[in-house]
Amino acid sequence: MKAKEKILYSLLGIIAFSTFGMLIWILSYIFIKGIGNVDLIGLMPAIITTIYMVVIGLVIAVPIGMGTAIYLNEYAKPSKFVKGIRFSTECLAAVPSILFGLFGMMFFVTQLKLGYSILAGGLTVALMILPTVVKTTEEALKTVPLSYREGSLALGASKFSTIMKVVLPSAVPGILTGIVFSTGRIIGETAAIYLTAGMVFRVPGNVMESGRTLSVHLYMLAKEGISLEQAYGTAIVLLMVVLGLNLLTYVIGRKMKNGK
């Protein structure tokens, strides 16, 4: 039995090391190819547009997603309606991003007459990440021990106060994971944004103007063969933005958890 466990542990170690090594190899390759072609000033329009898109998507999806998860886990009783919500959420999570893009183009861009704008793109990506926020938040709430709720209620706190002051702070790490994952998906999304926000490469004056995110800019550089060197440089900046936003989300989450 011990021999089998050693073999299993060894295989798992090799798999973990291989995965880590592949990540380092990909990142190293991108950095070596693009480190001499990073132009932050030249990419500023795409960086600003990307930040706009992330902020709009999260501001819309996170409150709605967290509210839905709180209702499903804390208030709703088992029923066909609740099962229907969960089933719909799982189905939405499996929908390809190109379909969200087509819906956004037909509804937000055309039907609501928002045109190719950052707002139309932000609304579209908000719909994309909403299932992820709901699912991760609900799973995070499930990890909070029932004794926390019972103890708070026994001390005379209302159910709402218990959820806001006991349950949610305890679930912050799991909720934060979902937000970080959603942020990465928005930043890396191309098809849905391409079809709704457009590809105008300029600093947007407001959310009603068209814009080009870093991922769309990278796609345009690679697709049109303009400059592979610039494409690698853009990829490095894209990674830097992802890392920066993830670190910012982590810091905010830690402060929320510690009540500071």
In short:
This protein has 260 residues and is mainly α.
What attributes characterize this protein structure?
260 residues; mainly alpha; 10 helices; globular
Biggest pleated-sheet summary: none
Low-confidence runs (pLDDT<50, min 5 residues)? none
How much is the radius of gyration in Å? Answer: 21 Å
- Got a strand count? 0
Instruction: Report the sheet-strand fraction.
Output: under 5%
Q: Give the fraction of residues assigned to helices.
A: over 70%
CA-based shape: globular
Give the helices and strands as they follow along the chain. Answer: HHHHHHHHHH
User: How many H/I helices?
Assistant: 10
Q: What structural category arises from helix and sheet content? A: mainly alpha
The average pLDDT score comes to 85
For the terminal residues, how far apart are their CA atoms? 49 Å
Oligomer state equals single chain
Could you please describe the fold and organization of this structure?
Helices cover 79% and strands 0% of the residues. The chain has 10 helices and no strands. Helix 2 (44-75) packs parallel to helix 5 and helix 7 packs antiparallel against helix 10. The model has no long low-confidence stretch (mean pLDDT 85).
Reconstruct the topology from this structure.
Elements (H helix, E strand, L loop, with lengths): L1 H33 L9 H32 L4 H14 L3 H15 L6 H25 L3 H9 L4 H30 L2 H6 L17 H11 L3 H31 L2
Helix pairs in contact: 1-10, 2-5, 2-7, 3-5, 4-5, 5-7, 6-7, 7-10, 9-10
